[in-house]
Amino acid sequence: MSDPRTIEVVAPNLKRRLSGVTATVVRLIPVQARMVGIVATGPGLPPDVPHIPLARAAALPRDRWRVWHARRNTEMALGLVLRHVLRRRYRLLFTSAAQRRHTGFTRWLIRRQDALIATSPQAASFLERPATVILHGVDTAVFRPAPDRAALRRDLGLDADAVLVGCFGRVRAQKGVDLLVRAAIRVFPRHPRAQLILTGRITPDNRAFADALIAEAAAAGLGDRIRFLGEIPWDQVVRHYQALDLFAAPARWEGFGLTPLEAMACGVPVVASRVGAYETLVRDGETGTLIARDDLPALAAALDRWLSDDAARARAGQAARAHVAAHHAIEGEARAITAVYRGLLA
Fold first, then answer.
1. pTM of the prediction?
2. With the C-alpha atoms ordered 75, 76, 82, 85, is the resulting torsion angle positive or negative?
3. Using CB atoms within 10 A as the burial measure, which of 52, 98, 256, 320 is most buried?
4. Domains of the chain with bracketed CATH
């Protein structure tokens, strides 16, 4: 998008590595670009996402108002610099997923925004200002069941005959990865076909945490059935979702948490803890199972139940796909956010 006259919204992404926020920007903007003149800015964005350099975002003409849509503190702060120091004509919008009391600096930044979006009613309750609640959605054309799951698994180097459980996201205690590994150690001896794969970055401060879990799995004789695959490219993450029979999201806390939606869109039932927006996304007993936070016995019982019943998993996977398509498609999220842009630009 080279003509500045067509740019109505700039969505910064000031983080090079893949994160939940970056994933939101990457998946939303191509859809929003069909509805509004939007570009991203910042490092590490894939070529199919419309974007401009940061320097250009800071030098857009002052002939009209545009929206600066921030999702991080650094992006809110930069928006203030652009408007009040460089005198760019930006309306400031912030989306918050956090379900906790914000720091003093974050509250100061939030008070200076022109409008707020929260990704859940819980997140809105911590903003101390009115916010539009817009739940995340997923692109059901990208996240969809594999036409041939066995062939896909062979292509990915996975066991075509396994009952495959997955957990995707950064490997750390917040995500409940330790709970899941220990639940698998309890349950897998009764289910010889069961395997667990975990994808996601292991940061240096979590290396010892991950190594200890790998050692626990090996000591239980399950080192070949509980595997940490590390960080993988985004397109490969989608293919790994499609290869699963069951997804687990036993997080101890979460802002919103997109992974259950992404898995369900691929026709995969989900076991999730009652944190973030998971209670809103997962229909207990229909598209998966909800368990209490930090409840290892409940997690093990849920895994045991789903691993024991191939037909129930298949039915729940079909229900999960239908539920996401009906209630959480990304087009609805994009339209709702675009309506907020239109209000700011009116």
1. 0.81
2. negative
3. 320
4. 4-137+329-345 (3.40.50.2000), 149-327 (3.40.50.2000)
